[in-house]
Write a structure and sequence with these properties.
The protein is α/β, with parallel strands linked by helices. The chain has ten helices and eleven strands. Helix 8 links the parallel strand 7 and strand 8.
């Protein structure tokens, strides 16, 4: 769609009615928001926004870590009702504090996926006011393997009183990392879903995770990765053929343990496409 046509549509909307905004590829939008003549498209005018999702947004951080566009950040400060923030495929390394410090109200949902987060970003997040209210945290696609036990363990302890959904997909977590996180993870008493897809973890480690988390009575759904003893991993991602016999054996052992621990209400499953194949395979 030509950009001028998009602006025409936006000018017909009552921006204060909008509660959810998703923008994929922010490049052209940024210039529109920066132009005072196009005040109808200013982010700050959507002051009732509850959910903001930015994909492939160029924050334009300098190599010295200087602030990005002060205009855009100033608009974020006006979003006094924002509860959900989703940032994906954006280079935020070491600069997460610039974004979160602009938000006056603690978030309920924070998704920062494939943003090349550093340990300083996780440290800042663990000390920010947002940890007091977070119900959903998604850090998928960031290399967290060198942030364990701290600062990732510290972050999990800080959000343990409210966290309900935790996604750590494709974070290069191995057995030692997951075992080190268990004490902090087991403190998340309100956790209802946990996703660990695409992490090179063994079947034995997954069974240990099951044993330690059955005490989390609100935990109902666990998405586990294909174990390293069932497939190959390259750069943190599974590839090549999957040994379905071994995977079916693991699933059977998981179900056996769940029944023995009287947790039939807890569902453990591999990634959905593979799960469908296993059903057909059985």
């Amino acid at each position: 769609m030509p950009f001028h046509s998009l602006l025409g549509i936006l000018k017909t909307l009552k921006l204060d009615f909008i509660q959810e905004l998703e923008v994929f590829d922010w490049f052209d939008w940024f210039w529109a928001l920066s132009d005072p003549k196009l005040s109808a498209t200013q982010l700050g005018r959507i002051f009732n926004l509850r959910s903001l999702k930015l994909i492939y947004y160029n924050w334009a951080f300098s190599s010295r870590g200087e602030r990005p566009s002060s205009y855009f950040l100033s608009q974020l400060t006006r979003l006094g009702h924002l509860q959900k923030l989703h940032l994906s495929y954006s280079y935020l390394s070491g600069n997460l504090h610039y974004v979160l410090s602009c938000l006056w109200v603690p978030l309920h949902s924070l998704e920062i996926c494939y943003c090349r987060l550093l340990d300083t970003d996780i440290t800042y997040l663990s000390q920010s006011p947002h940890t007091t209210c977070l119900k959903k945290l998604d850090l998928s696609g960031n290399n967290l393997s060198y942030m364990i036990p701290r600062p990732l363990g510290t972050l999990l302890r800080e959000v343990s009183g409210t966290l309900q959904h935790l996604d750590l997909n494709h974070c290069r977590l191995k057995d030692a990392h997951l075992n080190a996180l268990l004490p902090a993870l087991c403190r998340c008493s309100h956790l209802s879903s946990l996703s660990l897809s695409d992490n090179p973890i063994s079947s034995a480690c997954l069974l240990s995770l099951l044993e330690h988390t059955t005490g989390l009575l609100e935990l109902k759904q666990v998405l586990y990765p294909i174990p390293v003893d069932c497939c190959m991993y390259l750069h943190g991602l599974s590839w090549g053929p999957v040994n379905k016999d071994k995977l079916c054996q693991l699933q059977a052992e998981i179900q056996k343990q769940l029944q023995a621990m009287q947790r039939a209400d807890m569902q453990w499953s591999p990634p959905l496409p593979l799960l469908m194949q296993l059903v057909q395979f059985e």
